[in-house]
Amino acid sequence: MNWRNRNVSTSRSALWIVSITSLILVLFSVLQQGGRYSVISSDGIGYYSYLTHIFETNSFSQQVPDNRFVFDFKGKGVNKYYVGTAISMSPFYALGKLFSSEGSTSSSFSYQFAISLSGIFYLILGLIFTQKLLKLFHFSEKIISITLLLFFFGTNLLVYSVFQPSMSHVYSFCWVAAFLFFTKKYALSVKSEYLYASIACLALLVLVRPINGIVVFLIPFLVGSWQGTMFYFWSIFSKKRLVFSVLIFLLISGIQPLMWYLQSGNWWIWSYAQEGFYFSSPHLFDFLFSFRKGVFIYTPMLLFSFLGGILWLSKNRFQGIGVLLFFVGVVYLLSSWWNWYYGPSFGQRPLVDFYSISAVLLALSVKQFLGSRQQYIALFLGVIFVLLNLFQTYQFQNGIISSWDMNWKKYQYSFLKISSTHQNTLGGNNDIMLYNAKTTNLVQVNYEFDSKDTESLDYTNKEFGWEHLFLADSNFITLRGIYLKVDLELFDSNISNQNGALFVVDLQDSNGQNYHYYTFPIRDVPPNKLGWKKEQYQIELPKIRRSGDRLKLYIWNKENESFLLDNLKVNVIGIN
């Protein structure tokens, strides 16, 4: 065979690079963590629990509410999450079961590794559909290759496919990409098989995350013109196509009502009843630019996608307006969610679901810059964005940046730091108030520590000092939880990399048994300058179970640091 004359697809080579890199990263993590290797975590536990309750413990209809993954619905335990992620993972769960040893649990290594393979599989499948979609938009092999590599190495797609594959986002990414490809293919060919494939993918992506059904608003962009869009929908309404399309969608999406029925006896349940959107006050700026989770702070590569959307206006005004309006709607919708930063995560994780269409826009930017006088500026920025993403991914994985509570001070302190001395050194706590919380001020305590000998509390060589115990009465018994607001002042007399003094929240029943124990370092960052500084915390707690329970707050100076404490205020707020 003459290898020089062989027509090798460069975009296929890009897919191989991503595949091999992903597998190497997983294997490296396995070697590094050994028996502690775990990727089924956070919300992924809730998605994965469908599989364990159905196939492992046979307890699907007898789940115990836990106030996180399983909620109480009329006395029945119902999984809060939708079933699509579990369906997507199920072949790999079966693979993990096949290679598990006798007596092993569904959280053992074989299952953890199988779910890692699941993330890689759906990453590559999603990128293959993205590659095919880009070809339908007539981008060259070179541009497609660059685009695929930039999206893997330059965005948080890497995190949610390789390091957190039990989360829903890589599966949403795959099914959205498949839907867009088959929809575009149907628009070009009007062949029924492509329509039915797109409907099946739409049903699957709705099963994973129902909100992702908004991708149907991209149909005009995919078709390319107003007249073509009208024809697209007119072509569906032939009797046979419409009936088959509706039937396919109902058969697949109907799995979710069946799951609800098996768990509760009801065919319809709104599992996010105590969560929702603040449509009148979206966190648009925070969503895009904040140091907590801002899109362009943690995934600046998407600036090229934004530029691609602007460029599309000159290429095709109808498509340009359509795709920009779509992303304006997506950002507005996602930033209106009550928890706009989406809990512990890297960057804005819900945008990962729509990266296939972002790739189309990025590809136009790449095409615009290639061969132009600005290509070296674009190349420089692209390299910077990739390196920043890889640095911050490493920091996220190793606890150098916070997964939920970053701010400007923390970002400055941790910027480009990768040494082990910076791991798990950030502190503070800034929980958001629960959705539509109706609050009651229960009690407030103030400590100024003034005495004839001192005006502050000296923790030098002291492991413990300040402590306060709240005994819960009937006023503490709330429907949803307790929220603490804490203000204090600290005086640091030396500079250190340590941030070991902890603020401790300890909830106990009347017999002294813990049912909630939470700690965090008292400073946002280790003491990097001398003098007094103010710290503020906002801490969400679970509901108090019964009168007589004890809420104990104290500062534990476990590393024997030297500091002064003063002007401490605690406000306990009940959330209904």
Descriptive report:
The protein is α+β, with helices and mostly antiparallel strands and 576 residues long. Helix content is 47%, strand content 15%. It contains 19 helices and 11 strands. It has helices at residues 10-33, 43-56, 84-98, 109-136, 141-154, 157-163, 169-189, 192-208, 219-223, 226-236, 239-253, 255-264, 284-289, 295-298, 302-315, 317-336, 355-369, 375-397, 408-414; strands spanning 70-73, 76-79, 439-447, 457-458, 464-471, 481-492, 501-508, 514-521, 531-541, 550-557, 563-575. The strands form 3 sheets. Strands 3, 4, 6, 9 and 11 form a 5-stranded antiparallel β-sheet that branches. Strands 5-10-7-8 form a 4-stranded antiparallel β-sheet, with no helix packed on it. A two-stranded antiparallel sheet has the order 1-2. A hairpin with a 2-residue loop joins strand 1 (70-73) and strand 2. Helix 4 (109-136) packs parallel to helix 7, helix 5 crosses helix 17 and helix 15 packs across helix 17.
| Portion of residues within helices | 40-55%
Please trace the helix and strand order, writing H or E for each element.
HHEEHHHHHHHHHHHHHHHHHEEEEEEEEE
The SS-based structural class is alpha+beta
What is Rg? 26 Å
What is the strand content?
15-25%
Largest sheet: 5 strands, antiparallel
Shape: globular
Q: What is the helix tally?
A: 19
How many strands in all?
11
Mean pLDDT over all positions: 94
* Straight-line N-to-C gap: 73 Å
Low-confidence residue ranges: 1-7
